[in-house]
Specification:
- Helix 11 packs across helix 13 and helix 11 (308-326) packs across helix 14 (354-374).
- 38% of the residues lie in helices and 16% in strands.
- It has helices at residues 2-5, 10-19, 24-42, 50-66, 113-120, 163-170, 187-193, 227-237, 277-280, 284-297, 308-326, 328-334, 340-350, 354-374, 407-410, 416-419, 450-462; strands at 45-48, 81-85, 124-129, 141-142, 146-147, 149-150, 153-157, 176-181, 196-199, 219-224, 271-274, 302-303, 380-384, 397-400, 403-406, 425-430, 439-445.
- The protein has 17 helices and 17 strands.
- The two termini are 19 Å apart.
- The chain has an eleven-stranded mixed β-sheet, with helices on both faces. The protein has a two-stranded antiparallel ribbon with strand order 4-5. It has a two-stranded antiparallel ribbon with strand order 6-7.
- By secondary structure, the protein is an alpha+beta fold.
Length: 473
């Protein structure tokens, strides 16, 4: 039945459509029904493009009937419903980026580049997802749209800024979503909602047609119910852009498919466990999750990243300054319309001395060079994705290693030093480290080695060490 199939991963759905045991229309309708039944409690979706989705599903089904060769074409996501964070352009919708201000903008004239690529792989877009305003937050407690609720405990945060993207997968509304990650906004919600998330290398995937936060740090990437789905979506989105507008931050590299490499597993890889800063800033359940993953991989060697705290400080300054500069005209004339939880940080960023930001960029470069030397000895590094499991909505403070810290800027303290230098990371969901909630582990690779992080994620999933769960809503 389509409703039962919707609880599986996208690969299984595409295979069922290809085999004729279900239709794209049935899958999409099941997704829309699940959204209708659960979104009032989860608040993941801000827009549902029902007519577009049904029309696209009908086209997919018609192509299978009229062209038998379509069944063997390269459509790895055939009929798979997906949704995107509402900073991706969707033709005919305003690109809100979680804000009140952008409700006055004109509708997008076309789809974002990655939306087009997923639909070219056979997937069907069903809607846009809630997020922290302008992607500046780690809890997705959006004052304009309301908070996203964690499907595994509706009283807790889903994480941010891509909270809607992770919650929609965990709630069984769709098996695949897209989000963005500047300082941890894919990995934090993946961790707290218990789904798989991939932050590719900076510059790997084009950002054309998405609303920016910090152009020198922004990444786009997928959330999914399995490592295999991440790989399928990632491969579908790779490759240089053609004619027309291009993302100036995209490396425009040729596609380097990872799906065929997944069968190689983790055997032979040199795996290190990040210590020091990454152990000191994690609560017991986060450390337990890392240790469980390390044990499953047979990893025991601890390694410390040099300059990690300086790197995180540099990321803070760059984020604060670039983010504020983007919104400076609106900060000057209508500051009252910004999200109260981020407005003061934007205003502070507008006042940063330029010399501080220039120094932060130099520190970032030196930090990247130092970390590159670590990857001469290791292929993969492991660390917790969040310092703890999901906190109750409205929580202002938590304690880590004897220090009382604010939740909203600090939930990403383990992800920020990694995205600062653009490394590829797969967040994998661990159950059992916390009594009732999931928590994620970062599988980190050297630049352009998404193949290795996804191989490790797939090996862990195959061994039963990590897995996602559809919440019982």
């Amino acid at each position: 039945m389509p409703a039962e199939l919707l609880r599986q991963d996208g690969f299984a759905m595409a295979e069922a459509v290809r085999a004729g045991s279900t239709s794209a229309m049935s899958l999409v309708q099941a997704s829309l029904d699940r959204i209708d039944a659960t979104n009032a409690r989860v608040n993941a979706f801000t827009d549902v493009v029902r007519e577009r989705a049904l029309r696209r599903a009908a086209q997919v089904d018609a192509s299978l009937v009229s062209d038998k060769a379509a069944q063997t074409r390269d459509l790895p996501l055939l009929g798979v419903p997906f949704a995107v964070k509402n900073l991706f352009d969707i033709a005919g919708l305003q690109t809100l980026a979680g804000s009140k201000i952008e409700r006055e903008s004109l509708p997008a004239r076309g789809d974002a580049a990655l939306v087009k690529r997923l639909e070219s792989a056979g997937a069907v877009l069903v809607g846009a997802l809630n997020m922290d305003e302008y992607a500046y937050g780690f809890t997705n407690e959006n004052s304009h749209e309301g908070p996203v609720h964690n499907p595994h405990d509706l009283g807790r945060i889903a994480g941010g800024s891509s909270g809607g993207s992770s919650a929609a997968v965990a709630a069984g509304q769709v098996p695949l979503t897209l989000g963005s990650d500047t300082n941890g906004s894919i990995r934090v919600p993946s961790s707290l909602c218990g789904v798989f998330g991939l932050k590719p290398t900076f510059g790997r995937l084009p950002r054309t047609g998405s609303y920016p936060f910090v152009s020198s740090l922004d990444h786009l990437g997928p959330f999914a119910r399995s490592a295999r789905d991440l790989a399928l979506a990632y491969d579908a989105m790779q490759g240089p852009e053609g004619y027309g507008p291009k993302d100036p931050g995209c490396a425009q590299r040729a596609a380097e498919p990872v799906v065929p490499t997944l069968v190689r597993g983790a055997q032979g890889l040199r795996i290190g466990i990040l210590g020091g800063y990454f152990r000191q800033h994690a609560q017991p359940e986060a450390l337990t999750a890392v240790d469980a993953v390390a044990q499953a991989l047979g990893a025991s060697q601890t390694v410390e990243l040099p300059m990690v705290e300086a790197g995180r400080a540099a990321a803070f300054l760059i984020t604060n300054s670039e983010g504020a500069a983007l919104h400076l005209p609106d900060l000057r004339r209508r500051a009252q319309d910004f999200e109260p939880l981020s407005r003061d940080r934007f205003l502070a960023g507008a006042l940063l001395p330029a010399v501080w930001v220039a120094r932060a960029q130099r520190v970032r470069r030196l930090y990247a060079e130092q970390v590159a030397r670590v990857f001469e000895r290791f292929d993969i590094l492991l660390a917790a994705a969040t310092p703890c499991a999901a906190t109750p909505i409205g929580t202002e403070w938590f304690e880590i290693n004897g220090h009382r810290l604010p939740v909203r800027p600090t939930m990403g303290l383990l992800t920020q030093p990694i995205s600062c230098i653009g490394l590829p990371v797969c967040a994998v969901p661990v159950w059992g480290a916390h009594p009732a909630l999931p928590i994620g582990v970062q599988v980190i690779g050297a630049p352009w080695r998404e193949d290795l992080v996804l191989r490790v994620a797939a090996a862990l999933e195959s061994a039963g060490a990590v897995h996602s769960r559809v919440a019982a809503l």
